[in-house]
Amino acid sequence: MRILTYSKRVFLTLTMFTLAYNIHAQDQNLTLNQDPKFEQLLNDKRKINTSINTNDTYKIQIFSGKSEEAKKALADFKRENSDIDGTIIFNTPNYKVLVGNFKTRIEAERNLAEIKKRYKSVFLIKPSK
Questions:
Q1: 96-123: string of b/e by CB count within 10 Å (b at 16+)?
Q2: pLDDT tens sequence across 25-66
Q3: What distance, in Å, lies between the first and last C-alpha atoms of the chain?
Q4: What residues does 86 pair with on adjacent strands?
Q5: Concatenated DSSP letters for 103-120?
Q6: 92 lies in some domain
Q7: Is there a cis peptide before residue 36, judged by omega within 30 degrees of 0?
Q8: Taking a C-beta distance cutoff of 8 angstroms, is the pair 49, 41 a contact?
Q9: What is the domain range of residue 76?
Q10: What range(s) does the SPOR domain occupy (predicted)?
Q11: Which of 22, 66, 71, 95 is the most exposed place for a label (fewest CB within 10 A)?
């Protein structure tokens, strides 16, 4: 290993500081031209995202099985309960029909009691985060 003399170390250090001082990589101004509809769409998306909060809500699973049967179960449920929203998710190997978007467990259990009267294998779930 080669040891630099004191004068060479000082010279290299000063050279590095001088070069680093003159670097101006982030000094440019950038002008962005975008369609005004983009901002409107972005604001609409933000509103929708704040209204959908699936991680903090309870849902009721009313069906688990094949795709066509899941679609039929969801259509039947929506026909009977237009005020409760529902969705189909795929969880290998079954399609599951989840209904409701209940903020509290008590509210979900009240609806569960009503839904149990019409569907046989129904249970309450809280989707994981």
A1: bbbbbbbeeeeebeebbeebeeebeebe
A2: 666 788 888 888 988 898 888 887 766 555 678 999 999 999
A3: 55
A4: 99
A5: SSHHHHHHHHHHHHTT-S
A6: yes
A7: no
A8: no
A9: 57-125
A10: 52-129
A11: 22
